[in-house]
Design a protein that fits this description.
alpha/beta, FAD/NAD(P)-binding domain, Flavocytochrome C3, Chain A, domain 1, Methane Monooxygenase Hydroxylase, Chain G, domain 1, seven-stranded mixed beta sheet, four-stranded mixed beta sheet, about 35% helix
């Protein structure tokens, strides 16, 4: 394993989704940019987003309405300043995506598209009071990634290193009471097994979420919480990790790998039903299928447990067949490949881990508590989502905060940025090559299963206690294995996964109430008197309150 190579650029972006590439494209106008991705752009979390990007677009809509919808979904924990800023800057961020080549679906009249920016087809999803979700049929994320990837490839100042796994952030030693700044990252080249220092004046974390911490997830295989784990180990504050959103509807099929069934189906009239055809959502919320995601996911979970079911049904077959095929072509084809025809009957669905509403704590310029380190997208906690994300606000936040992060980071580079300190080469010590890969796979499976069973949609003190005790043992085993063996991408991800799992459990244990995505049977009521605040964890400090 070689470990003596070094790269330098003005900006480093870790992650290749919408937040990272938006930042990179803008940063390339004033300096050199290195984009580090674990896989290709097609595997970014963004590419898996089906529904769309929420933004005020129609003349019938308003910023005030979008703001109130977001605040309502966030169950009292949204930061109003963050909500207002991101919502109001949304339309310009969307226009920039369009300028970069994103082709959102337009309204059609007699087979001809209407040539006006106002005439995009707008979807409506749970929690929204208006149609405001711009989409590219049901493959919005993939279309955005196509446009951004092509735009980035056309800019000579952007160097993309695919199949590179970030290991640890390069943070200088604090001095004179000031925190040490971040100057890049140690990264593993998965193809050559080379470990190199990637040095930069400003680093943007855009690594996405941590869905792989759960047994069932809609996320791609790369979503192992790397950004949160690395930032926390480096000393950054993280917050609100107890609020993990479970998407209510994923296709239930052994070969489907938790294929996401977009919330947009319910926006177009799909109904959740029991096997006997009974619709049940009205009993849980007046908005029924268009209730916020936390409500819908808990309702499905409750019905499954009450009736001993493995799944419930989602039925859109009462809509016109041509409409279904035109509006949801990808979902229709994928379901058909598993033997389910959306136009003729219901499909089986279950909830799955979908979106991390907490993350690395940032301000509205994307700055973390570590100088020169920025974060945007799902890895970051800006205060937009609060205790529950409003549907399609994720791509909105990523696009806006990628832009805002650049506007802040550019000041460092424009001022000269200073010279980076000397960081040591990666030292493997006496580590040896592993001959016991079963140690990794066993720990991986244990973490994901215990998180699903004990720290899922419904929690309790006893379940969280069991999870905490077992994770402590697994973490000791993982870290022992990590230091004794030469690292590879699986071992890096496992270390990050157990770190994030422990942080989620700590956060969930601390919050003695039920709010938004965090529901515990021991404290089933929301308590604004004691718990109307974020759950913040800083490295080396106890999580308060613990009682």
């Amino acid at each position: 394993m070689r470990h003596n190579a070094q790269l330098f650029s003005d900006f480093l972006v870790i992650g290749g989704g919408i937040a990272g590439l938006t930042f990179a494209i803008k940063a390339s106008e004033i300096g050199t940019v290195t984009v580090l991705t674990k896989a290709g752009s097609s595997e970014a979390n963004t590419a898996y987003a089906q529904g769309g990007i929420a933004s005020v677009w129609s003349v019938d809509d308003s910023f005030e309405s979008h703001i109130e919808d977001t605040l309502r979904a966030g169950a009292g924990l949204c930061d109003r300043a963050a909500v207002e800023t991101i919502v109001r800057e949304g339309p310009e961020a969307v226009r920039e995506l369009i300028r970069l080549g994103t082709r959102f679906t337009r309204v059609e009249t007699e087979g001809n598209e209407i040539d006006s920016e106002l005439e995009y087809d707008l979807g409506q999803e749970g929690g929204h009071s208006h149609r405001r979700v711009l989409h590219a049929q049901d493959l919005t994320g993939r279309e955005i990634m196509r446009a951004l990837t092509e735009a980035a490839a056309a800019r000579p100042n952007i160097r993309t290193l695919e199949n590179h796994v970030a290991i640890n952030l390069l943070v200088e030693t604090p001095s004179a009471g000031k925190p040490g700044a971040c100057w890049g990252v140690y990264a593993l080249d998965r193809n050559t097994h080379e470990i190199r220092k990637v040095i930069s004046r400003a680093t943007m974390l855009a690594t996405g979420g941590a869905g792989k911490v759960y047994l069932y997830t809609t996320n791609p295989d790369i979503a192992s919480g790397d950004g949160v784990a690395m930032a926390y180990r480096a000393g950054a504050s993280v917050a609100n990790l107890e609020f993990y959103q479970f998407h209510p509807t994923c296709l239930y099929h052994p070969a489907a790998k938790s294929f996401l069934i977009s919330e947009a189906l319910r926006g177009e009239g799909a109904i959740l039903k029991l096997p006997d055809g009974t619709a049940f959502m009205k009993r849980y919320h007046p908005d029924a299928e268009l209730a916020p995601r936390d409500v819908v996911a808990r309702a499905i979970d409750s019905e499954m447990k009450r009736h001993g079911l493995d799944f419930v049904y989602l039925d859109l077959s009462h809509r016109e067949a041509d409409f279904i095929k035109r509006r949801f072509p990808n979902i229709f084809k994928r379901c058909l490949s598993f033997g389910y025809d959306l136009t003729k009957g219901p499909i089986p669905v279950v909830p799955a881990a979908h979106y991390m509403c907490g993350g690395v704590q940032t301000d509205l310029d994307g700055r973390t508590s570590i100088p020169r380190l920025y974060a945007a997208g799902e890895v970051a906690m800006t205060g937009l989502h609060g205790a529950n994300r409003l549907a399609s606000n994720s791509l909105l936040e990523a696009a806006v905060m990628g832009r805002r992060g650049f506007n802040s980071a550019r000041e460092i580079v424009a001022s000269g940025g200073g010279a980076p300190p000397e960081f040591p080469e990666w030292d493997p010590g006496r580590a040896i090559r592993s001959e016991e890969r079963v140690m990794i796979t066993q720990s991986w499976d244990e973490i994901r299963r215990l998180m699903w069973n004990y720290v899922g949609i419904v929690r309790s003190d006893s379940r969280l206690g069991r999870a905490a005790r077992r994770l402590q043992l697994i973490k000791q085993e993982v870290y022992g294995y990590y230091w004794d063996h030469l690292i590879d991408s699986d071992l890096i991800e496992l270390r990050n996964l157990v770190e994030v799992a422990e942080l989620v459990v700590r956060s969930a244990t601390a919050r003695k109430e039920s709010r938004g995505l965090h529901y515990t049977i021991d404290y089933p009521e929301r308590d604004d008197t004691k718990w109307l605040h974020d759950t913040v964890i800083a490295t080396g400090t106890p999580l308060a309150p613990l009682d």
